[in-house]
Design brief:
InterPro entries: Bact_Lucif_Oxidored, Luciferase-like_dom, Luciferase-like_sf. By secondary structure, the chain is α/β, with parallel strands linked by helices. The chain contains 10 helices and 12 strands. The strands form 2 sheets. The protein has an 8-stranded parallel β-barrel with strand order 1-2-3-5-8-9-10-12, surrounded by 6 helices.
Length: 332
Amino acid sequence: MRFGLLCSAQADNDKFGPETGQGFRDYLDLNVEAETLGYHSSFSVEHHFSGWNQVSAPLTLLTCLAMRTTRLRLGTAVMVLPWHNPVLLAEQTATLDLISNGRLDFGIGKGYRHGEFKGFGIPREEAEARFEEAIEVIMRSWTSRSRFSHHGRYWQFEDIVVEPPTAQRPHPPFWVAAASPSSIRRAAARGFNLILDQYAGADAIGERIALYRSEREARGFTFDPMQVAVARQLYVAKDKADKEAALARQAEYTRRTVAVSRSPDGNAGSHVLAYADTVGATEANTLYGTPDEICDMLTILNEAGAEYVLLTILGGKEQLRRFARDVMPAFS
């Protein structure tokens, strides 16, 4: 199995406020060590207006990380396309791909937090159409070396050539977060790689991987298990009491996420909101436990078809090292 990180950096940490930026420096140091420990990749989220200083400029942090690493794949999980000018985003990501010598994994999504759409003044009802138009523009920007114009519903560009070119050819791999059968089929049809959410159980993960594989092969694409990344929250516990305390902390963090995600009418949506109304559902499939327990859980995931796991680690460098020392060797 292959392991990477799924990071949600914050500007502050336990000792220093956001004005210091120490949390971002901690994030960089953590990922530099992750590379030396054999982790394959690091994906960074994008969030806005949460009130707890979550990373809002992931491409900036990933560019800094590119300058301090040589092998680590650098991913976005995800850039929310409805909020971005697609030409500017194509330019910024191409620059990162060049700076990193072709290590960009371009994860994209439609967004799910009500407060973010409200803050940007973009109706959530427009998310799907904006997402589709942005993909069209970015793909053309990365693959065309001649000038073009685009006259769409949301963006207008006249006689442009998008520079610089990407390092990877024909372009960096697209990764898309998907859960429903229809969204998985669309990802497979486009040849996009797949990110599966951290809350679904092993049976659901296996069904989604099987659907993705069959759809790819039906359309003439090859299938590589490394084209599917399964997100999981991780805590390597000393004992049962340590595990239960960590699960309680994670549940509190998840409640905070739900609070900024749900719309005023209370309607549930995708991602965490799909699990939020069932007690314990957001913690049921975490990789929280002793090394032996985590190995057993990973074995079940692996038997379901998962070979690439992105870990959101609670506990910083100590946890990073414990997983690398006590769990990773069993799957190398």
